[in-house]
Structures are given as structure tokens and as C-alpha cells.
Amino acid sequence: MHEALLFEKLPSSFVRCGTCQWRCTIAPGESGYCRIYQNRDGSLYNLNYAQVSSMAADPIEKKPLFHFYPGSLCFSLGGWGCNFHCEGCQNWQISAVRDRERWYGSREVLPEVAVQLAQNYDCQGISWTYNEPSIWFEYTLDSARLAKERGLYTVYVTNGYLTPDALDTIGPYLDAWRVDVKGFSDILYRKLTKIMHWRGVLEVAERAKHKWNMHVEVVTNVIPTMNDDDEQLKGIAAWIYEKLGELTPWHVTRFHPQYQMMDLPMTPLATLEHAYDIGRAAGLKFVYLGNVPGHESENTVCYSCGKLDVARSGYETRITGLAGSKCQFCGAELNIRTNG
Ligand code: SF4
């Protein structure tokens, strides 16, 4: 148990949590919507500080991040719980488990240990992923600070629902913001995630890029009959183009039936290719299909000269034409962060 950083004391020992945009008002002895932050005697505590459900040295492409240190290994940690309740969650075994008694196999991995493990496994960076990182915000903040001191890059793989305050607190220590944008309407977001103010996800992503100079990549898991219509996909693509820029990668990924959405089919390839066409027609230079190993759209091809800059097949990555962030053949800017 760890005291929360972002909360406000209210009369009668109530508190208001300031970590995510639910901004829960919590009575003494009660927990917020996520059930991970709890009011004890008028103070707020995080219940899963350093409680790790999963960790691995992953290729950065698995996040997915395609324009951020391609080919590098990223030490990846997940905890428990979430502030969204998505019926099709791909990691529901850890995100939907909110009661401590059911955290089977949980291990305490303090920030010093996590950062040391990243270095032991020759990882160039560290990420908080698998479940929503803001759910153990204090842990990710302490770890990110330490990781930056040791020269590692830092990545949030997030649903993007942090408050601007939370973002500004961790912003100085984060390098990449890999955010899900699940749809582009009130009804869709409410149906898929149960949240009310989804536009806050967009605003915080824009802030991550423009205020904190983070590298941003966007993922949309395309779910048949839910968010696979042109209105949703065109809305997302147009927002990326207008607010994040044409060089921002957009990953449109295949949904696999999971959790409470077992009745829906896997996303047809044709639907993903249609989403790709929508992204390109909106002006985006880099649209990638995800969960379709071997598809040619996994590669980074220069939009200017048409040459292959990064070849990918599954999680095999080969750099074939990069000079720093640019195409080695024609000098076009690709918005790729590298060591060079
Ligand atoms: S993190 Fe979000 S859901 Fe959890 S208590 Fe705080 S405001 Fe509520």
C-alpha cells in the first residue's frame, strides 16, 4: 500500500482522486471505480504499488511501437486492474482482476529491481504495459525517474485516460505514449469502455506530444460491428492527421474474440485493409496492420522515394535504410526515434 500522489481532501474525510479522468469522489473505507485506489481515514492509497502480474523483455514492436528505437528490447511490466471495463479486453486475466485476494502469482518488483532487470536483460528501455499503467501511477513514476537516470527510454502503453495533472507529473520522465483510440463517438466509447468523457483521451495525447515532446503512436483494435464503420475510422484518422501530424503511425489491429466478446468474429483482413486505405486517404504516411504476421504493411516504406527503410516480419526487425530519423536513400523525415 502506497499513499497516492494526486488527490484532494474533501469534507467529512471524503477524497477526490486526480489520477484519471473518472476523478472519483471516494468515501472513507471505499475505493474508486478501478478498486485500486482506496480511501483510508481521509487519505488515498494505491493498493498495487510494485505488485507485478507479468514481466518480459519484449521487442519494442510488440507494444506496438514501430517508429521508436526499432529492433530494440524493452523491459515490460504489467500490474493488476484497470480504469476501463472493456468487454473485449485482450488482457482481461490481469485487467479484470481487481481484488487483491485473486492476484495469483503476484510478485513485488520495486523500481530499483525493475530497472536493474531491464539492464540485466540488455533492454534499451522500460515500459508499463499489459494493463493500464495509470492504475499504479506512483510506481510507474518512481520507476520512470530511475530509468531516466540510468539512461533507459520509458514508454506508457495506455488507454490515455490520465488527467492532465497526472500527465504533467510524469511527463518529464516519459519518452513514448502508445495510446489506444478505440472509436470516435460518445456512444461507441460508452459501449466499449464505459467511460463518459472520451475526448479527454485525445486531449491528453495531444498534450503528451506538444507539451512533453513524447513520441506518440496510436492503436485502434478494429472490432467487427463495433468500431469498423467508416465514421469511426475516418474520425480517428482525421484527428491523428490534424492534431498529431501526418507522420504519426496508426496501427489498425486485428481483434480476436476474447472475454465477454466471444460471440464476435476475428476481424477480416479486408476490413483491416479498408482501414489502411482510410488512413492513407486521410493523409497519414504510416498506417500499419497489426496481428497479421507477414503482411507487407508491417514494413516501413518511405513515402517519398518508395524504398524499404525498416523490414518487419512478426517481431523480426531489420533496419534497411535509416539515417537517424530520416530515409537513408532520399532524406525524407520519417519521424523515427533511434540511437543515431
Ligand atoms: S485512478 Fe481513476 S478510477 Fe481509480 S480511483 Fe482514481 S479516478 Fe477513480
Tell me what the structure shows.
This protein has 340 residues and is of the alpha/beta class. The protein folds into 3 domains: 2-46, no CATH class; 51-288, TIM Barrel (Alpha-Beta Barrel); 299-340, no CATH class. The protein is 24% helix and 24% strand. The chain is built from 8 helices and 21 strands. It has helices spanning 92-95, 111-120, 137-149, 164-170, 186-193, 199-210, 230-244, 269-281; strands at residues 2-3, 7-9, 15-17, 25-26, 37-40, 43-46, 51-52, 54-59, 73-78, 107-108, 125-128, 153-158, 176-180, 215-222, 250-254, 287-290, 300-301, 308-313, 316-319, 322-323, 326-327. The strands form 6 sheets. The protein has an 8-stranded mixed β-sheet with strand order 8-9-11-12-13-14-15-16. Strands 1-6-5 form a 3-stranded antiparallel β-sheet, with no helix packed on it. A 3-stranded antiparallel β-sheet has the order 2-3-4, with no helix packed on it. Helix 2 crosses helix 3 (137-149). The chain is globular and about 65 Å long. The relative contact order is 0.12. The mean pLDDT is 95. It binds iron/sulfur cluster (SF4). Iron/sulfur cluster is lined by residues 17, 19-20, 22-24, 32-34, 36-37, 83.
